[in-house]
């Protein structure tokens, strides 16, 4: 199989995702599902920033939306979000938000940026 840049870049992007999840998991002492939930909550919290740029804002999400986003059963997500809350990583009061958005952004800084084409 010839080394094609397209495939190589996709594999490197996939490796970045696995390294990100592993970094979150190890740094915060989480299991893999908890790490995915933490990343998913932050992503959903920052959708307004993604849509509106610097005029965006952090918005709370709900357990059902997070469960759907990371494709976990709602009850599993609820239990694991409770653990993230106990660990001080998220706040779940009128919606779920990452407790320290700056720290969340630090975790995703190493991901490759994809140009919209």
CATH topology of the domain at 31-108, by name, is Arc Repressor Mutant, subunit A
Query: What is the CA-based Rg, rounded?
Result: 15 Å
Ranges with pLDDT <50 over ≥5 residues? Answer: none
Strand content: 5-15%
The CATH architecture of the domain at 31-108 is Orthogonal Bundle
Put simply, the count of helices is: 6
Q: What composes the largest sheet?
A: 2 strands, antiparallel
Class of secondary structure makeup: mainly alpha
The H-and-E topology, N to C, reads as: HHHHHEEH
Descriptive notes:
- The protein is built from six helices and two strands.
- With 117 residues, it is mainly alpha-helical.
- It has a domain of 78 residues: Orthogonal Bundle (Arc Repressor Mutant, subunit A), CATH 1.10.10.
- A hairpin with a 3-residue loop joins strand 1 and strand 2.
- The longest helix is centred in the N-terminal third of the chain and has 24 residues.
């Amino acid at each position: 199989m010839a080394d094609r840049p397209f495939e190589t870049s996709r594999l490197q992007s996939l490796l970045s995702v696995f390294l990100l999840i592993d970094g979150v998991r190890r740094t915060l002492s989480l299991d893999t599902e908890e790490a995915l939930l933490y990343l998913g909550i932050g992503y959903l919290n920052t959708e307004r920033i993604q849509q509106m740029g610097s005029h965006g804002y952090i918005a709370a999400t709900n357990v059902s939306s997070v469960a759907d986003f990371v494709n976990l059963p709602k009850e599993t997500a609820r239990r694991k979000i409770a653990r993230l809350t106990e660990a001080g990583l998220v706040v779940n009061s009128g919606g779920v938000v990452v407790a320290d958005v700056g720290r969340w952004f630090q975790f995703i800084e190493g991901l490759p940026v994809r140009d919209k084409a």
